[in-house]
Amino acid sequence: MEMNTLAHPGAPSVVIADDYPIVRETVAKLLVRRGFNVISFGDGKMLVDYFQQLRANDRQAPSFLLTECRMMGTIDGVTCSRIIRTLFPSIIIIIFTVDKYVCVDLDVDAILPKPATGDEIEDLIISLYR
C-alpha cells in the first residue's frame, strides 16, 4: 500500500491502483483535496490481497475502485477488477486507461480515458455514487 489517507470521516473511500507512481500520487492528492478518503496501490497483487483480506475479515469494501486496465506486474487491472467484483459485487469499479477498447467487455461501472482532468474524475465519481 502506497498511501492511506483517511482524512475525511464519513466521506466515500476510493482505492486507486496504477503502476505509474506519478499517476497514482496525482489522482490521490486530487481526490483527497476534494474530500475523498484514498488508499492507493502500485501493484495488482497487493490490490487483490487487500480486498481478499477485507472479505476474510468481514470488512466493508471502499465505495470505489479506480484501476488502470493494463497495470504491469503479476495481476493486471482487468484481472483485478474481475476478482474484486466477485468479492464485492456492489463496489463501483472505474477502469482508467489509454485503451478503452481493451476493457469494453468488463463488468465495470465506467471506463475513464487517460488522460482525464480532476473535474472529469470527480464528476464521474459523483455521478456513480449511490
Written description of the protein model:
The protein has 130 residues and is α/β, with parallel strands linked by helices. It has one domain (3-128): 3-Layer(aba) Sandwich (Rossmann fold). Helices cover 37% and strands 22% of the residues. Strands 1-3-2-4-5-6 form a 6-stranded mixed β-sheet, with helices on both faces. Strand 2, helix 1 (21-33) and strand 3 (37-41) form a beta-alpha-beta unit. The longest helix is centred in the N-terminal third of the chain and has 13 residues, at 21-33. It starts with a strand and ends with a helix.
Q: How is the biggest beta sheet arranged?
A: 6 strands, mixed
How many β-strand stretches?
6
CATH topology: Rossmann fold
Task: Supply the helix-strand structural class.
Answer: alpha/beta
Strand order of the largest sheet: 1-3-2-4-5-6
Please tally the helical runs, counting DSSP H or I stretches of 4 or more residues: 4
Multimeric status of the protein: single chain
Pfam families: Response_reg
Protein name: Response regulatory domain-containing protein
InterPro entries: CheY-like_superfamily, Sig_transdc_resp-reg_receiver
Chart the SSEs and their pairings:
Elements: E1 3-5, E2 13-17, H1 21-33, E3 37-41, H2 44-56, E4 64-68, H3 77-87, E5 92-97, E6 110-113, H4 118-128
Parallel strand pairs: 2-3, 2-4, 4-5, 5-6
Antiparallel strand pairs: 1-3
Helix pairs in contact: 2-3
